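Progress against Task 2.4 (sequence-to-structure conversion) is shown through the following example record, which the project officer requested during the mid-term review.
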Amino acid sequence: MLSFPTWKITLVLGLVLLGALFSLPNFLGGRALPGFMPSATMNLGLDLRGGSYLLLEVDPDELKTNRLRELSSEIAKSLTRRPGNVRFRNRQVVGDAVRLRIVEPSQIDEARDRIEDLATPVGNVGGPSSLEIREAGGVLTVSFSDAQLEQLEREALSDSIEVVRRRIDGSGTTDPNIQRQGANRIVLEVPGVDDPTQLIDIITRAGVMTLNLVDDEADLSVYPLDTPRLGKVKRAGVTELEPEAVIFEDPILTGGDFATASQGFDERNLPQINFTLKGAGAREFGKFTSENVGRSFAIVLDDKIISAPRVQTPILSGSGRITGTFSLQEAEAIAVVLRAGELPAKLKVVEQRVVGAGLGEDSIRAGATASILGLILVAVFMLFAYGLIGSFAVVSLGANILMIVGVLSGLGATLTLPGIAGVILTIGMAVDANVLVFERIREEQRNGRSPVTAVEAGYSQALSTILDANITTLIAAAVLFQLGSGPVKGFAVTLGVGVVTSVFTAFVLTRLFMATWLRTARPKALPV
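C-alpha cells generated for the chain above:
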C-alpha cells in the first residue's frame, strides 16, 4: 500500500500537473498562453453568463399540412411520370387528406396501386402502412395512418432541433443549449445574447424554399391569395416591389435541392444570395430552364415571392443567384436559413425571457465565495482534527479542485449554477474518504501498531468502504445524466468528474504524501 516506485510517483504527479495546466486558462482572465499549452476554458451556462431563454413549440397541425402537400406532389408525379399516365383532376389537400378524382373509372385500381407504392411500413418491416387509401365514386382520399402521424411528430421534433442548432451556429452565436421537452417542445438557451429579436426571426422562419413555374397568362383576379385552385396558387411578393403572381403548386426544386448558399453582391453592389444545387437538383433545374426559355419562375420563401426572374438562357451549371429588394442582413439571414435547411413546420415561441449578465456575475461570485468558504472550513477542520496528516488531505483537496476544473475545461463542458453545487459537493466527498482512512489509522495505532503498519492497515481496510460509497454516487450521477436535461446534466457531469478525481486525490495522492513523510521522517508515533 505504501510502495511507490519512481514510475508510479511520476504518473501521479504528472496527472496532477496535467489537471493544473488544463485549469490554468480559467484563472488568467483571457490572457494569452504559449501555443503549446492548453487554452480551452469552461463554458459558462445561461445562469452564469446571462443570455436568452426560449421555449419553442412545433405546430402539429402545420406539420400535417406540410407533409400532406408533399404527399400530394408525390402522388401527382407517381400518376403522371410513368408510361400509361393516370388522368386525374381536382387534386387538393382537404382537412387531413389528399383528395383527387380519377377521370377514367377503369384506371382507379391502377391509381390505387401506384399510390400504395408510395407507402412504407411504419417502424420495423411488417409494421402498419404509412398511408390509408379510400375510394368513393371515383374520388380517392389518401391520408396518413395514426402510426405514421406519431412517427412524423417524433421525426419533426428531432429534425427541428438539428435545424435550430445549425441556424444558431450559422448566425455566429456560441455554446447553445438545445433540449427536447415533452412531445413537441424545444428549450433553447443561448448565453451572451441579450436581445433575442433577430434570434427569434432566424429560428421561427420555416425556411421553405421552392422554385415554381409562373403562369404568366393567368388572370390574377380569378385566384384568391394563398388559396390553391386547379393546381395553381396566387402568392404575394415579400415586399411591395415584388408583384403578386400565379404559380404552379408543384415545385421545380425544393430547399433540399440546395447544396450551399451564401450572401454576396451583384454588379450594382446590392445584396444577393449565391447558391449551388445538388446533383439531381442541378439536372432538374437544367432541364427546366432548357424547356422554358422566355418564361418566368418564382423563388418562393415561406409562401412569399422574393424574386421572379425570367429564363433567358438554359442554366446548366447547377449554380445561380437570387436577387431582390432585401437588405444585407436579410440576405445573410436567408442564406443561413438555406444552409441550415427547412423546418418541418414553423416553430412558435411559447415562452421568452432574458437573463442579465449582472445576475450571472452575482451567481459566479456567490458560487466562488461558497467554494472558498467551504474549502477554508474543511481545511480548518482537517488541521484541527488530524494535525500534520490533515495538511496532506488539504493539499490533496486543492489538487482535486484543479483537476475537476481541468477535466471540465478539456471536455469543453458548460458550467452552470448546479454545476458549481456539484463542485462544492465533491469537496465534502473528497474529505469524507480521507476521514475514513484517518479514523481507521487512528484506531489501528490505538491497538498498538507501528506508524507504517497502522497506515497500511488504515488504507487497505478503508478501501472497500470508499469504493462502495463512491461507486453508488457515480451510478446516481450516470442516471441523472441519462434522464436529466440542461442544468441537471451539468450537475451530473461535475458530480461524476468530482467522484473520480476525489477518489484519486484522497486515496492515491494523499497516500503518496503519507508514504514520503514516513520514509523521510520515520516517526515513532503518528500525530493523530
